[in-house]
Design the sequence.
């Protein structure tokens, strides 16, 4: 059974929150979207995610952004579909360019514009499915004459993956979106091909098909395609993504990938350790492990938004409260990120190691007595956000006297070297 349309739409709305920009770290994040647990948001929470957090879908790396255009009214007063601007291609590292060049050779004939990518040694953004290291990837706009489409590829090596779930079967984990169509095929030699399709829903999201080849040695190739030129947030240009199952299988199993896959060291394998509700090594798993002792934990959910992306409910003798955490891949190495951070936190403190710390206490959104504690640290390679409430959910009523984690506790989480060492 598929998710209810309104729930699934709100989940995607929380992710969208503006023009979808394709940048270096965005490549892998988009490919993983199908696998990652989504935030089970109600309408008010979805709106709050969009309006309250200026870092939703930020400019993570290369590429120019544009302001979200206002939705024009149609002749009958209804709102017409918004067409978002196409992002500008970003500059790639030499290793990333090699991956992009390979991808162009693997793709069927057509016009190809490379928008982003990452080489073997380029640092990426961690997620519940990996630590963002040793993960070559590329993202392109492809046009075969029947409409432009965004197509991305991601290469990884896995250590002891769970073969009871995707891509080895069509079973998805708790809280993960269920595809509208799915097929799994055992290939000669022990490999597995999986194709998972999310159908388009007009005004909410575009069609998104994800093909995965999992080889017996743990290496994996994932190709994701949309029926729009820049993924979610741009108008569809064709009824379906450009490639069918046979073409996708040929592309993900192409021998052209062998050299890149072989170069991923065994020590760079994605972990088989799944001892947190958020998965092995990603943002949510780190967040889970950094929570102070003394709380019971429940209500685990995740989303693809950099801010307020992962959440859980903590409880102690004083009551329950939600906590949220996310990471933006732009850090102090990006001058624009530092400027934005100082604007968000005029009284931010520069730490001895060069990081910036910002904290604040603000009123909650759940009515009288609700509060929010925020701590954010701008590291060299990313911005870590941690938020604690004295309510369950952003819009829930007060469930304890003060937010469930103090500013000091949130700061300790955000300052942890674990984020920097990913």
Sequence:
């Amino acid at each position: 059974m598929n998710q209810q349309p309104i729930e699934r739409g709100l989940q995607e709305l929380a992710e969208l929150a503006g023009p979808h920009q394709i940048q270096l770290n965005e490549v892998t994040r988009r490919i993983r979207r199908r696998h990652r647990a989504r935030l089970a948001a109600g309408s008010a929470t979805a709106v709050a995610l969009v309006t309250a957090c200026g870092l939703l879908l930020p400019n993570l790396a290369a590429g120019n952004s544009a302001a979200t255009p206002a939705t024009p009214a149609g002749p009958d007063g209804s709102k017409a579909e918004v067409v978002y601007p196409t992002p500008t291609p970003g500059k790639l590292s030499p290793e990333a360019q090699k991956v992009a060049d390979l991808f162009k050779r693997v793709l069927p004939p057509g016009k190809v514009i490379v928008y982003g990518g990452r080489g073997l040694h380029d640092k990426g953004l961690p997620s519940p499915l990996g630590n963002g290291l040793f993960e070559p990837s590329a993202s392109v706009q492809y046009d075969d004459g029947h409409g432009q489409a965004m197509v991305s590829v991601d290469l990884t090596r896995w250590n002891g993956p769970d073969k009871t779930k995707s891509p080895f079967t069509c079973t998805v984990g708790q809280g993960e979106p269920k595809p509208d169509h799915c097929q799994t095929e055992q290939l000669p030699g022990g490999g597995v091909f999986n194709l998972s399709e999310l159908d388009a829903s007009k005004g909410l999201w575009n069609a998104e098909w994800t093909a995965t080849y999992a080889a017996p040695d743990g290496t994996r190739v994932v190709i994701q395609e949309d029926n729009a030129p820049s993924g979610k947030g741009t108008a569809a240009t064709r009824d379906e993504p450009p490639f069918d199952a046979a073409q996708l299988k040929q592309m993900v199993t192409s021998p052209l990938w062998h050299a890149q896959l072989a170069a991923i060291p065994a020590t760079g394998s994605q972990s088989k350790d799944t001892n947190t509700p958020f998965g092995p090594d990603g943002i949510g798993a780190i967040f889970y492990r950094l929570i102070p002792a003394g709380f019971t934990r429940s209500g685990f959910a995740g989303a693809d938004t950099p801010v307020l992306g992962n959440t859980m409910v903590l409880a102690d003798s004083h009551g329950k409260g939600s906590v949220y955490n996310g990471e933006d891949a732009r850090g102090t190495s990006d001058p624009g990120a530092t400027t934005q951070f100082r604007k968000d936190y005029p009284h931010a403190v520069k730490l001895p190691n060069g990081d910036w710390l910002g904290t604040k206490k603000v009123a909650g959104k759940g009515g009288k007595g609700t509060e929010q504690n925020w701590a954010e640290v701008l590291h060299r390679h990313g911005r870590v956000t941690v938020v604690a409430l004295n309510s369950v959910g952003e819009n829930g009523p007060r469930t304890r006297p003060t937010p469930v984690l103090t500013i000091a506790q949130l700061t300790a989480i955000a300052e942890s070297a674990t984020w920097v060492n990913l």
The chain has a mean pLDDT of 75. The chain is about 20% helix and 25% strand. The CA atoms of residues 150 and 230 lie 5 Å apart.
